[in-house]
Write a structure and sequence with these properties.
The protein is mainly α. The chain is built from 19 helices and no strands. It folds into three domains: 186 residues, Growth Hormone, Chain: A (Up-down Bundle); 58 residues; 236 residues, Growth Hormone, Chain: A, CATH 1.20.1250. The relative contact order is 0.13.
Length: 526
């Protein structure tokens, strides 16, 4: 079984004319840049229906409930694609598969604003989500396969860029497109960069041969179990709060059936000769920890974007374009912070586990500052807190990527890429479900408490003479104060999540060294 897996996976390695690995060159660097651009564009488009949903709903004439399905379907198919894309890249070749997915992504972006009806738009966004989700595993694969040892950490830094900088750039790009070019441009913004990406990938990446014989061992059972399982779980998480979680029969069926099918999928992968996931690799403490850690850190990163944005929109009445500078404070400096953190982690004497610990401390400090929010805060009050994230996020993500990849055998890359990216995608759905749940729960709790304390006194003492306008003003004030307290509560929960992961660092992961020092004898790692 191991021999067949190794033989099939080895086919993914690019070959030079002499049969060895293709040497790194400016041409391959251009191909890597093309894949990076494609992944960033996919990340931007993922957040389109989050950032400008109110305006898109108005343009399409749909309600809030219908709009949420645009986001949920895109996310579900995106996460599913992350699990199965590495197998497709090995079979059809990395260059062919990447160009095909980017081309499909751009074509669907062009068609999105002219769909004749809402069901057609649902189908389009689902397929576009699949195409976009197939791209992040390609970036990790390119970085691990083509970069020389001294550059692998910087390749992982480029991958980290898509998880930290990319989501923060999505807000200003979507806001600018809508404000100056209309709602259709929010979808069309992906097209120019997608074309650039395809040209760079076509020019830069070596062409691997087709491996269609792999279909003889295709894991059909795994696909039929895993794909619907992942979609069910993601949709359940994304729609859970809106439908009141397990009080909804739909959410119950999605979550229960999703967990059952996913369990069966994992059991199937254990016994498959050519699986999508090699479950036996989870015996590695470093890989198991990295999967837990990337999910945790991305929940913290999503909260850092969503919670202040919700506060500014709901309490202060900011438009997306007015929130954009706050996102840019995190996104733009990371173009410098990521290479600096990569350089730090590339030093043999530096233990990446404690770089991760430092990143968690910075992210926890940002959340602690956010927990002190009051109703007087405006955009400027968040800048210092966002500055903690500039170094905190790269210091967390890059060590996690090192722990996941530095001890890999060449044949293990596609399996780890699938697992890692699927968990990364799940983290976004988990963050959305968790934050929505906390917002609803804590807002209702605080609203009830505030009404109990102040409602009776304000109106009973006035002889119940308050008119409708007074009641509306009072209700708005109560809701605003409840949102402020809810924002503080969510930040306190994020502190607890960061602390829990921090306590795992001395227990689970072992010491790993940068690949540039692989030839140097290493002392026994803990």
């Amino acid at each position: 079984m191991t021999g067949s897996v190794a033989q099939a996976s080895a086919a993914a390695a690019p070959a030079s004319p002499r049969g060895g690995p293709a040497p790194f060159s400016p041409r391959i660097a251009a191909g890597l840049a093309g894949v990076l651009i494609a992944v960033l564009v996919s990340g931007f488009n993922e957040h389109v229906t989050d950032i400008d949903m109110t305006d898109i709903r108005g343009a399409l004439g749909i309600g809030h409930d219908e709009g949420t399905w645009l986001t949920a379907l895109y996310e579900a198919f995106q996460v599913s694609a992350m699990a199965f894309a590495p197998w497709c890249a090995v079979t059809f070749s990395l260059r062919r598969f990447t160009i095909a997915m980017v081309g499909l992504f751009a074509l669907l972006a062009a068609a999105a604003p002219v769909m004749p009806d809402l069901p057609s738009l649902y189908i389009l966004r689902a397929i576009q989500g699949f195409a976009g989700g197939a791209l992040p595993p390609m970036l990790m694969t390119v970085a691990l396969r083509y970069l020389p040892p001294k550059g692998k950490i910087y390749g992982l830094g480029a991958y980290a860029l898509t998880a930290t900088c990319g989501p923060n750039l999505a807000t200003p790009l979507a806001a600018l497109c809508f404000e100056y070019f209309g709602w259709r441009a929010v979808f069309w913004e992906a097209i120019p960069l997608s074309i650039v990406s395809m040209l760079l990938v076509f020019y830069g990446l070596p062409q691997d041969p087709l491996r269609l014989e792999r279909f003889r061992q295709f894991d059909w059972r795994g696909l039929l179990l895993g794909f619907p399982a992942i979609c069910m779980l993601v949709i359940g998480l994304m729609q859970g709060d809106r439908l009141d979680w397990f009080r909804s029969p739909l959410i119950c069926h999605l979550i229960v059936a999703g967990i059952f099918l996913f369990t069966m999928f994992l059991l199937n992968e254990w016994f498959q000769p050519l699986p999508f996931f090699r479950i036996q690799m989870l015996r590695s403490r470093d890989l198991s920890f990295s999967l837990i850690a990337v999910a945790t850190v991305l929940v913290l990163a999503v909260a850092n974007v969503d919670v202040p944005s919700t506060y500014l929109a709901e309490v202060r009445g900011y438009r997306p374009l007015q929130v954009a500078p706050m996102a840019l404070v995190v996104a733009m400096p990371q173009l410098l912070a990521l290479p600096l953190v990569s350089t730090l982690c590339n030093i043999r004497r530096v233990d990446c586990r404690w770089v991760l610990a430092g990143g968690l401390l910075l992210m926890g400090a940002s959340a602690y500052g956010g927990s002190l929010v009051t109703s007087d805060w405006f955009r400027g009050n968040f800048y210092l807190l966002q500055a903690f994230q500039v170094f905190g996020q790269p210091m967390a993500i890059i060590p996690i990527l090192m722990l996941a990849t530095m001890k890999l055998a060449p044949t293990d890359g596609p399996f780890v890429s699938g697992m890692f990216n699927m968990v990364k995608g799940f983290a976004n759905a988990i963050a959305a479900g968790l934050i929505s749940f906390l917002e609803t729960w804590r807002e209702h709790t605080h609203s009830n408490v505030l009404l109990d304390h102040y409602g009776a006194s304000r109106f009973m003492l006035s002889g119940l003479n308050a008119g409708p306008s007074d009641l509306a003003t009072f209700a708005q004030s109560v809701r605003a104060q409840a949102l402020v307290l809810t924002t503080a509560d969510i930040d306190l929960v994020m502190i607890g999540i960061a602390a829990a992961l921090f306590l795992l660092i001395p227990v689970l992961p072992t010491r790993v060294y940068p690949p540039a020092s692989a030839s140097i004898p290493t002392p026994a790692a803990r």
